[in-house]
Specification:
By secondary structure, the protein is an alpha/beta fold. The chain has 14 helices and eight strands.
Length: about 375
């Protein structure tokens, strides 16, 4: 089941401020989630394997220009150990994320993927930036199942201004996403909400692009300013009628609308959302369209150094504490933890819902 929300509807919902109307949007997204991906919440153990990065993204605290940040790269056996911990906690997937770090060599990474696949039943998701085709192909061959690469915004001019190319090689994350699909990866992307200069119109285009790319996973979080970055020192001008605010409410709207246009996608309640509402941001995300959590398995000694933005949620908790806390949060909202890898393509059959008679246009 998918609704045929058009650009004008998405735009109107993004601008909606009436709480009673928004309640209808949350309910509709929650129903769509339940009918299409069920009540299971899939847990992906996140391991932040390196904070080295060659890029100069204007939004991110890991950018190469952040010279005072102490850099680390996990050892292979530390990564394998974190994967074993994921198995111990009953997770179906391990997500290996890093800055765009060419110290992570093709062969070294392929060896780690091979070992995890040989030793564990885990699905392996990579999120290692815009790596050349030969790396992506080698890692797929080694057994990696999924790749995450957010396009951040579909507004090319805005993207180019906040994500400079590497030595004049143009960046085309959309082209890489299409290539990842050809290579057979389950493919994930996503955006930040409230980037300075992001308009309502472009956020509506982002949501339509999720549908066009037929993504398997879609991550949506608020832009959180980092003081050591160019965008961290410029204020988001919310006085401008066109500027998307980087608020919690805007993230819920984008998550709910994404669930409506991509009913079967895996959509996490992101750490960035938990960071701006530590009390119950994740729960509200799960009740407004999301179906995935990513508990952090990065060893504590590195956790603080993976400083994409300040005051990140869960930087003091051990993997064990994170696991216990999330299990409790999931049960409290009447959901249960999913079994197995929980990929979009190998999901267990859920009864096909009947198409709904009326469209959910914004009226
Ligand atoms: N280097 C890889 C990449 O860029 O795809 C993966 C790691 S990167 C830190 C993961 C994501 O963090 C980015 O895609 C971006 O959306 C998000 N991010 C970076 N800086 C952020 C900020 N200031 N606020 C919110 N999210 C941010
Ligand atoms: Fe590097 Fe990714 Fe951060 Fe950009 S968003 S600076 S590529 S870690």
């Amino acid at each position: 089941m998918s609704t045929t929300l058009q650009h004008a509807d998405i735009l109107a919902w993004l601008r909606e401020a009436n709480p009673a109307q928004l309640e209808k949007l949350w309910q509709r997204a929650d129903t769509m989630r339940r009918l299409n991906v069920g009540d299971a919440v899939h847990l992906r153990g996140l391991v932040e394997i390196s904070n080295h990065c060659v890029r100069q993204c204007a939004y991110c605290g890991l950018r190469a220009g952040h010279e005072t940040l102490v850099r680390y790269r996990m050892e292979a056996d530390e990564i394998i150990e974190a994967a074993r911990q994921a198995v111990k906690f009953g997770y179906g997937t391990v997500v290996l994320q890093a800055g765009e770090d060419y110290g992570i060599t093709t062969g070294w990474m392929a060896g780690i993927i091979r070992q995890i696949k040989a030793e564990t039943p885990l699905a392996v998701t990579l999120s290692l930036g815009e790596r050349p085709d030969k790396d992506l192909a080698a890692w797929r061959k080694a057994g990696a199942d999924r790749y995450l690469l957010r396009f951040e915004t579909s507004d090319r001019v805005l993207f180019n201004s906040i994500h400079p190319p590497l030595s004049h090689h143009p960046c085309d994350r959309i082209a890489i996403l299409r290539r990842l699909k050809q290579l057979g990866f389950e493919t994930g992307s996503g955006v930040m909400v409230g980037i300075p200069g992001q308009t309502f119109d472009s956020l509506a285009n982002d949501i339509a692009l999720f549908r066009e790319l037929d993504l398997d996973m879609i991550g949506i979080g608020p832009f959180i300013p980092h003081p050591a970055t160019p965008l961290g020192v410029s204020r988001v001008n919310t006085e401008l009628q066109t500027q998307v605010p980087n608020t919690e409410l805007m993230v819920y709207k984008a998550v709910a609308l994404t669930r409506l246009v991509c009913p079967k996608a895996n959509i996490p309640a992101t750490t960035a959302l938990a960071t701006i509402n530590k009390r119950n941001g994740r729960e509200l995300g799960l009740q407004r369209g999301a179906n995935v959590f990513m508990p952090n398995l990065t060893p504590l000694k590195y956790r603080r150094l993976y400083e994409i933005y300040p005051a990140k949620a869960c930087i003091e908790e051990t993997g064990n504490a994170c696991n216990n806390c999330l299990t409790l949060r999931i049960r409290k909202i009447g959901r249960h933890i999913g079994n197995g890898p929980g990929g979009r393509r190998q999901r267990a059959a859920i009864p096909t819902p009947q198409p709904q008679p009326e469209e959910f246009c914004h009226a």
